Protein 1
Amino acid sequence: MSAISSSGQGGRVGVPAFAVVPGLQVQHALEGREKEIVELVEATYRLHAAGVSVNPPSYFLRFPDRPSDRIIALPASVGGPLQVDGLKWISSFPENVAAGIPRASAVLVLNDHATGYPFACMEASIISAARTAASAAVAADRLSRGRPRPVRVGFFGVGLIARYIHTFLTATGWSFDETGVHDLSAESAAGFCGYLAQSGDASRVTVHDSPEDLVRHSDLVVFATVAGRPHVFDSSWFQHNPVVLHVSLRDLAPEVILASVNVVDDVEHCLRADTSPHLAEQLTGNRDFLLGTLDDVLSARVAVPADRPVVFSPFGLGVLDLAVGKYVYDEVARSGELHVVDDFFHELQRYG
Ligand SMILES: NC(=O)c1ccc[n+]([C@@H]2O[C@H](COP(=O)([O-])OP(=O)(O)OC[C@H]3O[C@@H](n4cnc5c(N)ncnc54)[C@H](O)[C@@H]3O)[C@@H](O)[C@H]2O)c1
């Protein structure tokens, strides 16, 4: 920490040093740590459910002239053993992909619990992808208990998030006989198949041109498209009762939601911004179609019926970004490689 004074984090109260953590360091800190990150994300869900967090609604900045683009602010605070506040500021510009750069870009600012001072600005698209994939891995494991363990996975929309989810599933013990791939873009499908081949995945890989075939051939279905409104309407595609990780949130028509068992990360967060569960609420005028939260399942407050499809719709909570971001920050600090910006906070004497 800073030469100015020690950090508020455990030291005496003072102005902390300010560090910038680039993506390369983030990636190194997370690589090969998938199991730890999954445990951290699960523990953070439990802290959130126990009320040891503050996680107001995400704020969506949208542009009238660019309706498919958005920048979302996710402020949050986690207590318990983590003790960190902060903000993720994440852009989604889907057209970026055609220009050869990722859709999402983000920074995460960590704030000191004691003084409120920001002490790190971190590259956060990797943190965001990792926490999303870790949450999907927790859900895949917990929601498939009590039914035959899925051996056929299907990825519906195969960009960066699908890649991270596959990596986290395989790193936490999943192996599949078959991997189905469906994407509107043949280039994306080919790119994902290339990733699968070099990842050492031994499953039989099939690219399905038909979305129906992908769903019907998968007992674990991962939606990671950029669809802004539902495009899957037929609940009969799901009559084999798969586990569905509805990470992209807006793919399923209310009819599919209503024919399924529904689990969310946080009810108030997920039932807004025209997600599929939000549309189902608007259609029915109630929330009876929700079984509960993932924490309800983790804590065995609810049991997941096996005789219907189960759909997990995670809105994505800022507390998860903070938990994973703090983990990365601590790893980089421990390695002695923090890039501290000297004199970042400058006007420190009240009267000059
Ligand atoms: N819930 C969460 O916490 C969370 C967190 C991060 C990302 N996400 C969501 O995950 C999604 C994927 O993100 P990404 O970075 O991988 O995006 P990406 O742009 O890299 O990939 C998306 C892919 O989906 C494909 N696609 C779009 N519409 C489709 C459709 N109707 N059918 C089939 N394929 C379709 C595109 O061709 C593209 O290959 C986004 O919607 C993002 O908002 C959710």
Protein 2
Amino acid sequence: MSISSLRRAALASSALSFVFVGAAIAQDAVPQDAAPPARESTPFTLETDQPRTAEQLAMQFDKADLSIKVMPETKTIDAVAVLDFTATAPLAAVVVELDTLLTVSSVQVDGRELPTDGWSNPEGRMTIPLAEPLAAGGTVSVRIAYAGAPRVAPRAPWDGGFVWATTADGKPWIATAVQGEGCDLFWPCIDHPLAEPARVDLHITVPSDLSSPSNGRFLGTVDHGDGWTTWNWSAAHPNTYAIALNIGPYEERTVQYQSRFGNTFPLTYWHLDSDDPAKVDALFAEFTPMMDFYEATVGPYPFGDEKMGVVETPHLGMEHQTINAYGNEYKLDGRGFDWLLHHELSHEWFGNQLTNRNADDMWLHEGLGSYMQPLYDRWLNGEAWMESSLVGQRKGLRNRFPVVSGSEKTEDQVYDGAIGPGNDIYSKGSLIAHSLRMLIGDEAFFRSVTRLVYGTPDPRPGQFQPRNGTTREFLSIVNEETDQDLEWFFDGYLYQAALPDLRQIREGDELALEWVTGSGDAFPMPVEVEIDGRRQTVAMTGGRGRIASPAGAHVLIDPDNKVLRRLEHIEVWRASGGRGG
Ligand SMILES: [Zn+2]
């Protein structure tokens, strides 16, 4: 998702003023029913990607079977989750996360009902001691019945939960977006990127005049004849925050896509039935060429045995695996494609197929994902459009914290620009990827990306599974592909807040160049220099170089903007209040 810490700060202040306005109105209003006590998810629940317990480290998540009835009128859910685990080490208790806003009415272990004191969920981390500890290899099935009013998203997708909207013609339009808080806002799970269930089956019951597209393969509907219909779906290896409910008066548009890898799968768009058909047509026409770009650039669509799905949502967007959220309202921006659709689709490769091992490596999702839009500008319209897009990203960099810190982080610690890289994981990540591509060339760059995403340079449909990766792993792949040690590149760009600075000192008829990085380590990044129109490459061995440059000659450093570096004119502009990116 596209988030900027600036935007988050602005939203926080506007939310604050809304509270004050609300209080002023409440004082003047005639008291009606007593307001319910303020309810909020625990701070633990609102974080995601926190360290797992010893029990969770010993639990392999085989399957989650989720039956969720969604009641628009009361903004509540009534749900049963059946969770299957295999112990990978001796296991005395099952530990999952579930928001305490939801009331658990029943817990069964392997079909046996537990007394109410047979489990506890004090902070949103639910512990279910087992009567007999499991040995490694043993399996356990836990059934949890729960209900209530789930967290309402204060501002989806940046501050997430349920979105209970209505369409212009007054019909319920409901979505979930929980990237920042995690799956435990509405189903019991292990809220950690390394705890993906091998399969999630969904049985979503909604009013029969609404549709409920969701993750994975469609397994049909069951009309209960009482005004409620259940929509059945099954998803393999879903990213934990990617499970999403989407409910509304949707119409469906599907085309069978013929992949360049030989397989065929559906591209489906669920849009509101009230949308302008011409706008629907135009967006839907973008699906096939976007898919072909990604398959040509990165590799086979990772979920070709399910579908590519997009659903129109009341919030801007989110990378929900095989059911991407689209809420950009068909806005045109002159680039010839919908950037939001393209960005969210990138996450099927960068986020869902490749998932970071920890949020500290989130730039692998957002930076590589954000580089795909300038590359698509190039794919469609040529180099100038890519460069224009990269310049737009360049103007938004903050450089206050490193893109990667090197130690484990929660997602909030990464996204909050006051304490972490924030928006730099998007634009700076993209520009770093571009500099890497310019340095090592297309063949090594794209082979490295493909290996990172699939674990192999030659992925074939059906022959790979979603995987977890890290920045260090990406470095070692790049080193293998280039037969060089590019640690200086990764350290200088990703692990330092400051951008590498190319210092220039005139010494007689020569120009002396020196790279200065945040760490002070050598940064042997070659750079092209144009002296009075004649272009040369300075090798910058050891981070230093010299080039003949007669007095009065016009010097242009890096004429093609291949190298991300400190640019004083952007700093001056930002200091004057300029904002970009
Ligand atoms: Zn994103």
